[in-house]
Design goal:
Radius of gyration: 21 Å
Distance between the termini: 33 Å
Helix content: 40-55%
Number of strands: 10
Largest sheet: 5 strands, mixed
Shape: globular
Structural class: alpha/beta
Order of helices and strands: EEHEHHHEHHHHEEHHEHHEHHEHHEH
Strand order of the largest sheet: 5-6-7-8-9
Number of helices: 17
């Protein structure tokens, strides 16, 4: 049995005889997760040759030597991923989507569902909960998620300014490395909505690659030349919404953050915000006074030419990325076809906090961050 890429949720009687599991934890009770009594139906990846699966994982616009073996090691040791568990988890998620009356339309292809399963280390209840949060957030904040079109005039302008550019893949960790130049973002012309949209466009495009789902992301931000306008363009509503909803709802394995040349006024704000963050999050943040300090922590082979590295210039790297985005344009726009019924009271406990982001304020957002 195969599954279509898009799932139109059926109403009425299902295909299986089902019962609610007697051994449900809190997450599955909240989700109303169902356990299939009939034999588990494998996803379309069942029966694939092992070497073919590994090769498919390593298919990426940003390759590096030895990536296939490295991804296999990370998937096994960090994510608990193995063939049988993956296939059973995919089948269980598809069945949950089919039975969930609130989900009217949702992608059900392996690559999309594995975003959530991998970030939650194949806990199906937690992956289903995050998927519902993600869909809820997309409809709650359409100004951030609707029409993530790389050909959009505003997004195209900030992309061309090299505000946020993937610069390559770290061969030691397998992670995709994203380089941001804060001063290149025109904070007099654009507000934080555009900044968030840019981040979402980059994340959504890259998350369709299995290598990025497995190995995760490293972010580097050059804050040299940053002005107060880059701070004041953020409203409290957007700050709280981004920190809590996006971090808790977007299935990204964010493993490292490097900040370079942070001005004093921004450092004080960041220090206050991080005082509410978890120890795990703080341990993944690294601040460098100079570019020279950054080069001591990040391989020169990765860094752009402008930063004393051996890589291409940011302009060349950005042109390559724009080519990648053009190849992903249809997939990015199709994300808008997914739909969740926000008025349906069933399983509302999964996402009710998304609508309370603004009321909680920035402090509340930090206390509830959940970092993989």
């Amino acid at each position: 049995m195969t599954f279509p890429r898009w799932s139109q949720v059926e109403k009425g009687e299902g295909l299986y005889v089902i019962k609610q599991s007697a051994d449900t934890n809190t997450a599955s009770r909240v989700l109303g997760l169902w356990t299939v009594r009939s034999p588990v139906v494998c996803s379309v990846s069942c029966g694939k040759d092992r070497s073919a699966q590994m090769a498919q994982r390593a298919e990426t616009f940003f390759p590096c030597d030895g990536l296939s073996g490295l991804l296999d090691q990370i998937a096994t040791t960090e994510l608990r991923e193995e063939d049988k568990l993956r296939d059973q988890s995919l089948a269980a998620m598809r069945e949950w989507i089919r039975q969930n009356g609130r989900l009217h339309r949702c992608r059900t292809d392996d690559r999309f569902l594995l975003r959530f399963l991998r970030v939650k280390k194949f806990s199906v209840p937690m992956a289903c909960e995050m998927l519902e949060r993600y869909l809820t957030m997309r409809q709650t904040y359409p100004r951030w998620f609707a029409r993530l079109d790389p050909e959009d005039a505003d997004l195209g302008a900030v992309l061309d300014a090299c505000c946020l550019v993937p610069i390559g893949r770290d061969p030691a960790s397998g992670r995709i490395v994203i380089f941001g130049v804060v001063r290149n973002f025109d904070a007099q012309r654009y507000n934080s909505d555009t900044m968030i949209r840019l981040n979402m466009l980059v994340a959504e495009a890259l998350l369709d690659e299995e290598a990025n789902q497995i190995a995760g992301f490293t972010h580097i931000f050059d804050n040299g030349g940053m002005t107060m306008a880059h701070v004041t363009c953020w409203t409290l509503d957007n700050l709280a919404g981004y920190l809590r909803s996006v971090i808790n709802c977007v299935p990204v394995r964010l493993k490292e953050n490097h900040f370079v040349s942070v001005p004093t006024f921004a450092a004080q704000i960041s220090k206050y915000c991080l005082s509410f963050a978890s120890e795990k999050l703080r341990a993944r943040i690294h601040c460098h006074s100079t570019v020279e300090e950054l080069r001591a922590k990040v391989s020169p082979e990765l860094l752009p030419l402008e930063y004393g590295g051996n890589g291409a210039t940011l302009k060349v790297l950005n042109e390559r990325f724009r080519e990648f985005l053009r190849s992903k344009r249809t997939t990015l726009l199709e994300l808008d076809e997914m739909e969740i019924d926000l008025k349906d009271p069933r399983e509302a406990a999964v996402h009710e906090d998304v609508g309370e982001v603004v009321a909680d304020g920035a402090v509340g957002s930090f206390r509830k961050l959940s970092i993989d």
